[in-house]
Specification:
Helix content is 50%, strand content 6%. It is built from 21 helices and nine strands. The strands form three sheets. It has a five-stranded mixed β-sheet with strand order 4-3-5-9-8.
């Protein structure tokens, strides 16, 4: 990095005009009660987060995507082959599968493995490990919970660095007690890990911009590479980092000159490229363009702009997986939203989803925090790092894709919003006593909202949506029903002394794994009681597992039930209807 030493002003040197530099954020020296009380408070927040998450995830059956994620991760670790689930990079799946690397867990290598069919491999894995299936997933979920802890800690640290200890605690509490973050911190998927490394990548780049050095540049490149190994969504970090660097130079040209910015970003990208290839064991590195059989319009169009024999400096499975994911995104997904099903999506889907899936008190704090940005002292050189990323995530998903499949897709934006909300507690805004009372009341209501929905975090909806009982009338899919309530259905059947039940279950897991005797209502059999997933009730087409046979459920298969009143509710994703009663 360039050296910027101070020059003595001589007689022959003209006076240098000072450039305007935005003021840094003044930080309060201590948390009330000192550092020990601050760390104790943070520890209590994390302990509460872990206890609530762990007790919740123990009651959740294996969800739709989890079925394929864990066996794919285990296959990566045991074979070094990345053919399964190429639609996203392998890091988080491998991390979740670490406790299963050695032991009695069976990994069947059948046709599904040979053909790289990840969901079929998930079925084979399920039946091969039927007796210990839930306990196997609990071990994988425990690893994801560690990433959730890391997300809470990093949110605390960044808010503390920006606004002081009080804000750090507020941001940590908002993050830890967010029902959506808590829901996905206990699932073997890529959502919470991608959120952590997305935040970590922008934080490490912020540190580099403030104090450019080779070490900070290397750390930022390392974290960026790990983020790219988490999820293809993290590719948006590349333009975000370039944009943030240019903006920071505009606000603070003396802190980050053009030379530091250009060489720093190039070195970061180079290091991240090395990390990305290392994560794939350098398999397929340098494969020429013409050896890829691209399917997506985007990748086909890009490939035409390069020589056919040009080697691509990326892993083969990364490039082909990105093509597969892009091709799926270009295809039309059926999406349920506000009582309608569409294959085109809605541009305002994620904004409305935020309004109904986040606690109202946290939304109020976020809006107040955003409003305070123009009233406080100028600190844009720092705050652009927490303002630009969530805007880019929301705009990118809303304007350039039709993937309206759930709040989890915008989960990486949430920690930034909570840091912005914590700005209200900073000393430089000098909140008055009544304002401090309102802030802590809002935070308390946020925590209460979390406790009231425990342990059904995946199905959380705020009171504006009518709560989780009515959430399925607004949103479906992973917002409320991801196949998580089979354990609760078994408890319901035991309590009602039901030997078997008619079941239309939105999920890939065979209910018999959880001891549920069932039959699907397609065979003309007499069904007195029918348990149905709310996704099927609202008309979302998907697949159902019928004792190992995978059947397609169509949109109108259960439309006649929508006017009926359910006999019982199992969790918030399964409704039980008594078909012997007149509609």
């Amino acid at each position: 990095m360039s050296k910027r030493g101070k020059k003595k002003k001589g007689k022959d040197q003209p006076a240098v005009k000072k450039l305007p530099v935005s003021e840094p954020l003044p930080l309060p020296p201590n948390f009330p009660g000192g550092l020990k009380l601050e760390l104790l408070t943070l520890s209590l927040i994390i302990v509460a987060f872990v206890l609530l998450c762990w007790n919740s995830l123990k009651q959740e059956s294996v969800t739709v995507d989890e079925l394929a994620h864990l066996p794919a991760g285990l296959s990566f670790l045991r074979t070094g082959d990345f053919r399964l689930y190429r639609q996203s990079p392998p890091l988080l799946r491998m991390f979740a599968a670490l406790p299963l690397l050695r032991g009695e867990v069976k990994l069947p290598f059948q046709k599904s493995w040979e053909k790289g069919l990840h969901f079929d491999m998930g079925y084979d894995f399920m039946y091969a490990n039927a007796k210990s299936y839930q306990s196997i997933y609990l071990r994988g979920r425990a690893m994801i919970l560690l990433l959730g802890i890391g997300l809470v800690a990093l949110t605390w640290w960044w808010a503390r660095s920006l606004y002081g200890p009080k804000s750090g605690i507020v941001a940590a509490a908002l993050t830890a007690f967010c029902p959506n973050i808590m829901a996905h911190s206990g699932l073997v998927t890529t959502d919470i890990g991608a959120s952590l490394f997305f935040l970590a990548a922008t934080y490490s780049f912020w540190e580099f911009c403030r104090r450019p050095s080779l070490l900070r540049c290397a750390i930022a490149g390392l974290v960026l590479g790990l983020a790219l190994l988490c999820k293809f969504t993290c590719l948006i970090l590349l333009p975000i980092i370039i944009g943030l660097g240019i903006l920071y130079h505009f606000f603070c040209p003396r802190d980050l000159d053009w030379q530091d910015l250009i060489w720093g970003v190039l070195l970061m990208f180079l290091i991240s490229l090395l990390i990305l290839n290392t994560g794939y064991l350098w398999q397929g590195f340098g494969t020429p363009v013409d050896q890829y059989a691209f399917q997506s319009r985007l990748m086909i169009g890009l490939s035409k702009n390069f020589p056919a024999k040009m080697p691509i400096p990326l892993p083969y499975d990364f490039v082909s997986g990105l093509d597969m994911q892009t091709f799926e995104n270009e295809s039309t997904y059926p999406v349920y939203f506000l009582g309608k099903i569409s294959r085109q999506g809605w541009r305002y889907y994620y904004l409305v989803t935020m309004v109904f899936k986040m606690t109202l008190s946290s939304l109020g704090l976020i809006l107040a925090g955003l409003a305070s940005l123009k009233f406080g002292k100028k600190s844009w050189q720092d705050e652009i790092f927490i303002l630009i990323p969530p805007i880019a995530i929301l705009a990118g998903l809303s304007l350039f894709t039709d993937i309206d499949l759930g709040f989890r897709y915008i989960l990486p934006a949430v920690p930034y919003l909570y840091i912005i909300a914590s700005r209200l507690s900073s000393s430089f805004l000098s909140p008055r006593p009544w304002q401090r009372v309102l802030i802590w009341m809002a935070l308390s209501l946020h925590i209460i909202s979390n406790l009231l929905v425990y342990p059904h975090y995946l199905a959380y909806f705020n009171i504006a949506a009518g709560g989780p009982e009515k959430g399925y009338k607004i949103l479906a899919d992973s917002n409320i029903d991801w196949g998580q309530d089979l354990i609760r259905l078994k408890k319901y059947m035991d309590a009602e002394k039901l030997d078997d039940i008619c079941l239309a279950y939105f999920g890939r897991v065979d209910p018999e794994i959880y001891g549920i005797r069932y039959h699907l209502p397609y065979r003309g059999e007499d069904c007195r009681l029918l348990a149905i997933s709310v996704n099927f009730l609202v008309g979302l087409p998907y697949l159902a597992n019928d004792h190992g046979k995978i059947l397609e459920v169509k949109a109108e298969d259960f439309s006649s039930l929508r006017a009926r009143k359910p006999l019982a509710r199992v969790g918030y994703s399964i409704l039980v209807f008594d078909l012997s009663r007149a509609p």
